[in-house]
UniProtKB/TrEMBL annotation, chain A:
<dbReference type="InterPro" id="IPR020581">
    <property type="entry name" value="GDC_P"/>
</dbReference>
<dbReference type="InterPro" id="IPR000192">
    <property type="entry name" value="Aminotrans_V_dom"/>
</dbReference>
<feature type="region of interest" description="Disordered">
    <location>
        <begin position="481"/>
        <end position="500"/>
    </location>
</feature>
<keyword id="KW-0560">Oxidoreductase</keyword>
<dbReference type="Pfam" id="PF00266">
    <property type="entry name" value="Aminotran_5"/>
</dbReference>
<dbReference type="GO" id="GO:0004375">
    <property type="term" value="F:glycine dehydrogenase (decarboxylating) activity"/>
</dbReference>
<dbReference type="GO" id="GO:0016594">
    <property type="term" value="F:glycine binding"/>
</dbReference>
<protein>
    <recommendedName>
        <fullName>glycine dehydrogenase (aminomethyl-transferring)</fullName>
        <ecNumber>1.4.4.2</ecNumber>
    </recommendedName>
</protein>
<dbReference type="InterPro" id="IPR015422">
    <property type="entry name" value="PyrdxlP-dep_Trfase_small"/>
</dbReference>
From TrEMBL, chain B:
<dbReference type="GO" id="GO:0006741">
    <property type="term" value="P:NADP+ biosynthetic process"/>
</dbReference>
<dbReference type="InterPro" id="IPR011386">
    <property type="entry name" value="Put_ATP-NAD_kin"/>
</dbReference>
<keyword id="KW-0808">Transferase</keyword>
<dbReference type="Pfam" id="PF20143">
    <property type="entry name" value="NAD_kinase_C"/>
</dbReference>
<keyword id="KW-0418">Kinase</keyword>
<dbReference type="InterPro" id="IPR002504">
    <property type="entry name" value="NADK"/>
</dbReference>
<dbReference type="Pfam" id="PF01513">
    <property type="entry name" value="NAD_kinase"/>
</dbReference>
<dbReference type="InterPro" id="IPR039065">
    <property type="entry name" value="AcoX-like"/>
</dbReference>
<protein>
    <submittedName>
        <fullName>ATP-NAD kinase</fullName>
    </submittedName>
</protein>
Length: 519, 376
């Protein structure tokens, strides 16, 4: 078995840093702006009096701290952050955490780009619009579909765009009352159920067959004249590619429904398989995953939405277009669903992704897919040799694609150490905590790993080595994992049940004061 | 937070299992098991659980019964314990379990921790109903009920967490038992006896995941809301037993029969605790009908366990297209690769019921799921 290089003496900064509001001292100011000069005040009058309708009735409860406190507070927090550029981020299955070339960050921080404003006249931003237009064409080529919008600000947003367009499509045909069901699968991304539900559809979820592939007979039974569309991911979150996807599409099309392909994570099949050949009407890509731009912490992201001609009349506006002379923002889509966000999209992400595609070219994009699948299969073979770890639908004879959903169910039975405990311990070796699973946890005690093309053999072996050590610890000294982490800043939730309780959860300081400090 | 803990060990629980007797109910079987070389393991399993409570022994008040029913093991581990009941007996029976549970309820314990199997759970249910919080240390042969922690150590850890935490959720879990004599003849006839109140163990034992997943209470509200808003006029609703279906009558402002069948017509309960004859006669008057049933968690039964009033004849008259199955997604996920099972007593109707159904798991939220046999 190959030897990895686990960081056995890892130690991360751990500051136990209070919340900034807890550092507040009444009257302290970081910055005291000078008073308005008398001459200016004489000219303008009392400006605030003219803004009565906009002014807060009560002062905001801002923390009162010095500049130095602000600086040390945020620096400490940054030191406690295990970002993807610091660790071996194989961990984030379903997220495609890959190396984001630094040179692309240079492009995005160049004043020639940062000084642009989305409200500038089209004539003055032809270069940027050209990048949008050409990147749309890349996405059309990768998907095989006819049109592309880069307006959605992320993956869920692109899926919601699809749901909104499907609603518009059926409304346009006077059939929204009868086409009110969306079919999805349990191992598709949860947004494939959540966003159509938000758009007003009923959701029918398909469970897997004995091999982990969506039960095609269940799809056949669910499909009817009420089917508005199917939303499905492929490969699904467990890393299994559905080889009967074209058959699924036919079932849905035969009852008159539409087909949306969630390709948020396209790393397994770049240059290998396309939505068009599988028969889909729409698809989307998370540009901040597959196409080499940073991913995480709610953005910035871009969901590239693609569709066939039949869905074009409902696309969001504006789409970046070209009339053979100049690039322009096309608002002339008569049945459009309108804007799904301001402007044409997140330009920084588009710029970096454009640079990534241009540097990779067709052949290396295909190679990225090949290497990510090879890496994953190597990692799987090593990990499944570790006692206590199994994988979802193990031994079904199907080669996994870019990720695998593992399970610590056996370890839990043997030692009472489960995936949350392993996750709390793995960070003590300098690895970011891993992604367990989307909800619900159909596969018990899950861990989902995705070693995309970025990671070297050394990286893979390091990960295996750490997992092996942690599992050994679980069998010999389970308490070590139950009380982890020991060398990291990462903490455990001490009252997890409160996340389920609207009377207890607190997303802001005000809510925390109201719900927890008032008694 | 809990502080007063009652401990009941059924010393003979599980004794029949290791020697292949499929259960340990009754003195004859227990004698036979011992003759075959069976070892009493319930106390060992209870010890594993109790060890998790040693760090908290000064924070709790422990009540138990004499000898092998708890006193011995508590003394061995050094717990200060208040022993209830009469002197220790050489042989204990189901009656002793019932007496112990009733005594502990008298003492107003916060939770009864018991080591046993389905027979023990049933006895405790008989004694305390669902008024007292209970948690099982799995120690019996038959573990069909949903009242147990994953294993003895998990049971101890869960109690330890409840000692330390101010709040915890509870849920009602099924008390199931099978007829052992019939089971020995190869016939499984599990029966739903009732519901015990248990801690909502998922958060503690299986660990909480990130936020965003609705708790059981919210999920049940959503299911109930969906069923009520889609109820049709002039259609008879035959509502089966269970905690999942309970909210329907309650939301409409009526009493509900937890272990029985209620009939609802135009959003009014027209009959509580209906038997098969009541259902059939109602169907004469209201031929347009729908059946609402739930899934027995971990068992996957939808017909033939605890809802025999909805007989094969009733099902034939109503039609499979008018069956509405409701369930929390958690219940389906316990055995997600096993079909839902029917045992109506009529092979013909069992076959007729096979196929895919839309299981209602939330508001306008359904799962396509197969009804069939275990080996399908």
């Amino acid at each position: 078995m190959p030897k990895g290089k686990a960081r056995n003496k890892f130690q991360q900064a751990r500051w136990e840093e209070p919340i900034i509001h807890e550092l507040s001292n009444k009257g302290v100011r970081g910055l005291i702006p000078p008073r308005v000069e008398a001459e200016i005040q004489a000219t303008t009058g009392k400006v605030l009096d003219n803004l009565k309708t906009m002014r807060r009735e009560e002062a905001p409860e801002l923390p009162e701290v010095s500049q130095k406190t602000v600086l040390s507070h945020w620096l400490r927090l940054s030191q406690e952050t295990m970002g993807s550029n610091i660790g071996n981020d194989i961990s984030e299955g379903t997220c495609t955490m890959k190396y984001n070339p630094r040179i692309n960050e240079e492009f995005a921080s160049n004043p020639l780009f940062t000084d642009l404003h989305p409200m500038q006249d089209e004539d003055t931003v032809q270069g940027m619009l050209e990048i949008y237009y050409k990147f749309q064409n890349f996405m059309k080529e990768v998907s095989g579909l006819d049109h592309c919008s880069l307006q959605p600000g992320g993956g869920n947003h692109a899926v919601y765009t699809a749901a909104s367009m499907i609603r518009q499509y059926w409304s346009d045909r006077g059939a929204l009352d009868t086409r009110d069901e969306i079919i999805t699968t349990i191992f598709s991304h949860p947004s494939d159920a959540a966003t159509p539900a938000t758009a007003g559809f009923k959701i029918i979820t398909i469970y897997p067959d004995e091999n982990g592939i969506p039960d095609i007979e269940a799809i056949r039974a669910a499909a009817s004249e009420r089917t508005a569309a199917i939303f499905m991911t492929n490969p699904e979150d467990i890393g299994i590619y559905n080889p009967r996807v074209d058959e699924v599409v036919k079932i849905i099309h035969d009852v008159g429904g539409l087909c949306f392909y969630d390709q948020a994570n396209a790393n397994a099949f770049l240059g290998v398989a396309r939505a068009r050949e599988a028969g889909f009407d729409m698809c989307h890509f998370n540009v901040h995953k597959t196409f080499g731009t940073p991913h995480g912490c709610s953005g910035p992201g871009t969901g590239a939405f693609c569709c066939l001609d039949r869905m074009y009349p409902y696309m969001p506006v504006p789409v970046v277009d070209f009339d053979n002379e100049k690039y322009f923002l096309n608002y002339d889509i008569p049945k459009t669903i309108g804007h799904v966000r301001d402007y044409a999209g997140v330009s920084g992400v588009v710029l970096k992704a454009y640079a990534w595609v241009m540097s990779m070219g067709h052949d290396y994009m295909r190679q990225a897919a090949d290497v990510s699948v090879i890496n994953n299969n190597y990692l799987e073979k090593q990990i499944l040799q570790i006692k206590g770890i199994t994988s979802a639908f193990q031994d079904n004879g199907i080669t996994r694609q870019e990720q695998v959903r593992y399970s610590f169910e056996k370890l839990k039975e043997d030692t009472d150490v489960g995936t949350d405990d392993v996750n709390a311990r793995i960070v003590d070796f300098g690895l970011p905590s891993y992604w367990t699973s989307h909800h619900p946890w159909v596969i018990p005690e899950p861990m989902t790993l995705e070693p995309c093309e970025t990671y070297s053999l050394d990286d893979l072996n390091e990960y295996v080595d750490v997992l092996r050590k942690v599992v050994d610890e679980a069998y010999s000294d389970p308490e070590l994992l139950k009380t982890a982490p020991h060398a990291s800043s990462s903490h455990r939730r001490n009252k997890p049940e409160e996340l389920d309780d609207p009377d207890k959860w607190a997303l802001t300081w005000r809510a925390y004061q109201r719900k927890h400090l008032s008694n | 937070m809990i502080q007063k803990i009652g401990l009941i060990i059924n010393p003979v629980a599980g004794i029949g299992g290791s020697v292949g007797l499929k259960g340990s109910d009754g003195e004859e079987i227990q004698k036979k098991a011992i003759a075959l070389g069976a070892v009493k393991k319930a106390n060992i399993r209870a010890e594993t659980a109790l060890k998790e409570l040693i760090p908290f022994q000064d924070e709790i008040e422990l009540f138990t019964y004499p000898g092998d029913m708890g006193e011995t093991i508590c003394n061995k581990l050094g717990f200060k314990v208040k022993v209830l009941g009469d002197a220790a007996k050489e042989k204990t029976t189901a009656e002793d379990t019932k007496l112990a549970a009733a005594d502990m309820r008298e003492q107003a314990v916060d939770i009864i921790l018991f080591a046993g199997g389905d027979g023990t759970a049933r006895d405790i249910y008989t004694a305390v109903g669902n008024n007292t919080l209970v948690l099982g240390i799995p120690a019996g042969v038959k573990i069909h009920s949903g009242v147990y922690a994953l294993n003895p150590r998990s049971a101890g850890k869960l109690i330890a967490l409840m000692i330390q935490n101010d709040t915890f959720e509870t849920q009602e879990a099924e008390v199931m038992d099978i007829d052992e004599d019939a089971f020995r003849r190869g016939i499984v006839t599990a029966k739903l006896y009732g519901y015990l109140k248990v801690p909502y163990a998922k958060h503690y034992v299986q660990n909480m995941k990130s936020g965003g997943v609705a708790g059981e209470k919210l999920t049940l509200e959503r299911i109930t809301h969906y069923i009520i808003t889609t109820m049709l006029e002039d259609v008879l609703y035959i509502v089966g037993p269970g905690t999942t279906t309970r909210g329907i009558a309650e939301e409409l402002g009526y009493d509900n029969t937890l272990l029985g069948v209620d009939l609802i017509y135009n959003k009014k309960v027209i009959k509580n605790d209906a038997n098969e004859k009541d259902v059939l006669s109602s169907l004469e008057r209201h031929p347009h009908a729908k059946i609402i049933v739930t899934v027995i968690g971990g068992q996957n039964y939808i017909f033939g366990r605890g809802n025999q009033q909805i007989s094969a004849e009733v099902i034939k008259r109503v039609g499979k297209e008018n069956i509405i199955i409701i369930s929390t997604q958690d219940k389906l996920n316990i055995n997600f690769n096993v079909p839902l099972i029917v045992d109506t007593g009529s092979p013909e109707v069992d076959d007729y019921l096979k196929g895919y159904y839309r299981i209602v798991v939330g508001y306008e939220d359904m799962i396509m799921y197969k009804v069939g046999n275990y080996d399908d």
